[in-house]
Design a protein that fits this description.
The structure holds 2 protein chains of 2 kinds. Chain A is α/β, with parallel strands linked by helices. Chain A has one domain: 3-Layer(aba) Sandwich (Rossmann fold), CATH 3.40.50.300. Chain A has helices at about 45-50, 85-90, 105-120, 135-150, 165-180, 190-195, 215, 220-225; strands at about 5-15, 20-30, 35-40, 60-65, 70, 150-155, 185-190, 200-205, 205-210, 230, 240. In chain A, the strands form 3 sheets. A 6-stranded mixed β-sheet of chain A has the order 5-6-7-3-8-9, with helices on both faces. Chain A has a 3-stranded antiparallel β-sheet with strand order 2-1-4, with helices on one face. Chain A has a two-stranded antiparallel sheet with strand order 10-11. Chain A starts with a strand and ends in a 10-residue tail after the last strand. Residues about 245-249 of chain A have low confidence and may be disordered. Chain B has a single domain (about 1-265), classed as Orthogonal Bundle (ABC transporter involved in vitamin B12 uptake, BtuC), CATH 1.10.3470. Chain B starts with a helix and ends with a helix. Classes of the chains: A alpha/beta, B mainly alpha. The interface between A and B is medium-sized, with 33 and 23 residues.
């Protein structure tokens, strides 16, 4: 059986000790798994990712993470006017492995170029980050995570703002990263997409469910996760209204 | 035509006092311009202006007590930073309003002290600097601080870039955004200290923001931007002092206005492209 990379037990997370945003979180993630983190806006997805990355301290419970963690934030959160190339951004990943005061040498630069090639952007290394499309920016941030050489990747709504071809490209990339033995936690609104991944974690200020998509994605769980946001469609099916993803850039 | 420009730019340096002023301003300019690029991208111009204005009481007290101005400036910076930090946390008051009130208050106290009959140098020297009256000791301090700031900027380049680009991911990359912010503010304080003695505490922001903002219009990568800003700062020092020599205008103000003109030209050039 593959290695457990993240283990959270009785975890509570939030910004103030007396007002946790998220409580009762219990899950384990193994190498090679893609975990969809589902939930409404304000349900605690981002808070969980920030806690896993070490940005926030757990308010209660235990959290064990094996090895390094890389964060792939929403690209709108990074500065689009910042004077950096795609290669500069990928090179930032080397801060995890090379002391901060050292200049990246030839081997580190080669690794950054290889990471850009792995996400299909070898031709864009010298382009300004802010000039790239949303999908390309997302992949540059994945390349930065690859340079970090982290076994765990946290992706915050990576599909927001991507057109269909870019989303398909990202799908393929994430599948490849998982099959290489990495664990991926992906915050998303897309329940249908989550059905194709290995694990699903449903949050709505507390953990509603965790398991394989088959076990976890029941009508009951979706109701508890999305509450009033859920739309009942003709024939008794349930639909989570799309948020912003698969729009054009 | 060329000889006219040549003599306009070369004539002013016959006197040792003018050559020292040029050396002082070039060192301050190169340092402030390189740092200024980070000040712009960390959105700190207002902090820089606030700090430089609020350190006036320190300078005035030093002048009154007969201490070296640089000591007063350093103490003034610490008090100013604490006052601004405290004002920024004032409950139920908008942050900018609280900081503006605190800074204006400090500037007022400083002016009051500087205008006291017991204070030896005039207020204008503190407010607008006295680049032509720079002493050997002040020049030596400028050399030391400039070297320190430039070496620190070279060492901190990667963390500064990573935190400025994406503060949220910094922790996962193994960088403390708080430590990087603190380091940048320390470098800013050190640069203000040498900048104030050359340009005074009202004009020092011009050299911090002008060349960097101009370089930002013309380049799209951080390292070239810093290099270009440093060159523009040195050019501005030469042109500004030459203008001041020929037109017999105040040295600091002429240099500050030259930086503004350089920014306007860069903006125009970027707009025409």
């Amino acid at each position: 059986m593959s290695r457990t990379l993240i283990a959270a037990h009785g975890l509570a997370a939030g910004y103030a000790p007396d007002a946790p945003v998220l409580t009762g979180v219990d899950f384990e993630v193994r190498a090679g798994e893609r975990v969809a983190v589902l939930g409404p806006n304000g349900g605690g997805k981002t808070t969980l990712l920030r806690t896993l990355s070490g940005d926030l301290r757990p308010l209660a419970g235990t959290l064990r993470v094996e090895g390094r963690i890389a964060v792939v934030p929403q690209t709108e959160r990074s500065r689009l006017d910042f004077p950096v190339s795609a290669l500069d951004v990928a090179l930032m990943g080397s801060l995890s492995t090379l002391p901060w005061w050292r200049r990246p040498g030839r081997s580190v630069r080669r690794r950054a170029r290889e990471a850009l090639a792995a996400v299909g952007l070898s031709d864009h290394a010298d382009r300004t980050f802010g000039d790239l499309s949303g999908g390309q920016r997302q992949r540059v941030l994945v390349a930065r995570a690859l340079v970090q050489d982290a076994p765990v990747l946290l992706l915050d709504e990576p599909y927001v703002g991507l057109d269909a071809p870019s989303a398909a490209q990202l799908d393929g990339l994430l599948a490849r990263l998982a099959s290489d033995g990495r664990a991926l936690l992906i915050a998303t609104h897309d329940v249908e997409q989550a059905r194709g991944w290995e694990r699903v974690l449903c949050l709505n200020r507390r953990q509603i469910a965790f398991g394989s998509p088959g076990e976890a994605l029941t009508a009951q769980v979706l109701k508890a996760t999305y509450g009033a946001e859920l739309v009942e469609v003709a024939g008794g099916g349930l639909l989570v209204p799309p948020h912003h993803h698969h729009d054009h850039d | 035509m060329l000889t006219a420009i040549g003599s306009f730019l070369l004539d002013p340096w016959e006197q040792a006092i003018d050559r020292r002023a040029l050396l002082e301003l070039t060192l301050v300019g190169v340092t402030a311009a390189a740092l200024g690029c980070w000040v712009l991208f960390y959105r700190l111009p207002f902090a820089a202006e606030s700090l430089s204005h609020a350190l006036l009481p320190g300078l005035a007290v030093a002048a009154l007590a007969g201490f070296p101005l640089v000591l007063g400036g350093a103490a003034g910076l610490v008090v100013a930073a604490l006052a601004i930090a405290a004002a920024g946390r004032a409950p139920r008051v908008d942050r900018d309003v609280a900081v503006a009130v605190a800074v204006t208050g400090m500037l007022g106290i400083g002016a009051l002290l500087a205008l006291a009959p017991e204070t030896p140098p005039g207020l204008s020297e503190l407010l607008f600097g006295d680049v032509l009256g720079v002493t050997d000791g002040e020049l030596a301090l400028t050399v030391a601080v400039a070297a320190l700031v430039l070496v620190a900027l070279a060492l901190l380049h990667r963390p500064l870039l990573a935190v400025g680009f994406d503060r949220r991911a910094a922790r996962a990359l193994g960088v403390s955004a708080t430590a990087v912010d603190a380091a940048l503010l320390l470098l800013l304080a050190a640069t203000l200290l040498i900048g104030v003695q050359a340009l005074g505490n009202l004009l020092v922001v011009a050299v911090l923001v002008g060349p960097a903002a101009a370089a930002r219009e013309l380049t799209s990568r951080m390292a070239p931007m810093m290099a270009l800003a440093a060159v523009l700062a040195a050019v501005g020092a030469v042109v500004g002092l030459a203008v001041s020599y020929h037109l017999e205008t105040a040295a600091g103000a002429s240099v500050a206005l030259t930086y503004v003109a350089i920014y306007a030209l860069a903006r125009l050039a970027a707009w025409r492209r």
